[in-house]
Amino acid sequence: MGNDVFRALGSQTRVSILKLLAGGELHVSEVARRLDLSVPVVARHVKVLEEAGLVRKRVVGNLYLLSSVGINIEEALAPLRDKAVVTIKKKESLFDALRQVPGVEITSVGDSQYITSINGERGYFIYEVDGKAPSVPIDQYHPAKTIRLQVKKLVPVSKKMIHVRIK
After folding, report:
1. Which residues of 22-49 are buried (b: 16+ CB within 10 A; e: fewer)?
2. What is the pLDDT of residues 97-151, one digit of tens each?
3. Spatial distance between the Cα atoms of 65 and 45, rounded to a whole number of angstroms
4. CA–CA separation, 89 vs 10, rounded Å?
5. What 3-state class would DSSP assign to 19?
6. Is the Cβ–Cβ distance between 100 and 86 less than 8 Å?
């Protein structure tokens, strides 16, 4: 995925095709008709979307039916993710590991500790160990073996933009 997704989303026409396909499977000519474009133009855009893994084409006889494939934003942004390798002793917590990583700010509130900033970017953070969310707070997690720790920022995603007009 990665760069192909950004290239695919860099065209307003391709974004319009994805919006149409979010409503369900459509024939290539129906997409062309709704967007007031020629079938060959739509086919070229669909090819870019297919290469990025955003659209699936199903052939039924001589019909080409298109459907949308969900986008995994986290996977698309993976090449931009910071990576680090740290070592801790057996009884130490994941916070002891995080203290070794530049740019991670940890704040204590009462008896609890929280990640409050990464690289100066404040927010709410969660963590996963080997791809799963543990059931204990990060300051109480003591790994018994080598693990892969991922710290993720919770980011609100807008699903609709609504302009409210006042008369």
Report:
1. eeeebebeebbeebebeeeebbebbebb
2. 999 999 999 988 888 888 999 999 998 999 999 999 999 988 889 999 999 999 9
3. 14
4. 46
5. helix
6. yes
Please identify which residue in the block is written with the tokens 């931009």: 80
In percent, the amount of the chain with pLDDT more than 90 equals 53
Alpha-carbon distances of 150 from 75, 121, 127, 133, rounded to whole Å: 13, 16, 6, 10
Q: Give the pLDDT confidence score for residue 8 in this predicted structure.
A: 86
Q: Return the structure tokens found at 77.
A: 């942004």
Rounded to the nearest 10 degrees, how much is the dihedral formed by the CA atoms of 133, 137, 143, 148? 40
Those residues whose C-beta lies under 8 Å from the C-beta of residue 127, and which sit 6 or more positions away, are 94, 115, 133, 134, 138, 141, 149, 150, 151, 152
Q: What is the mean pLDDT of residues 82-103?
A: 91
Is residue 47 predicted with pLDDT exceeding 70? Answer: yes
What stretch of H or E contains 35?
helix 28-35
Overall residue count recorded for the chain in this entry: 167
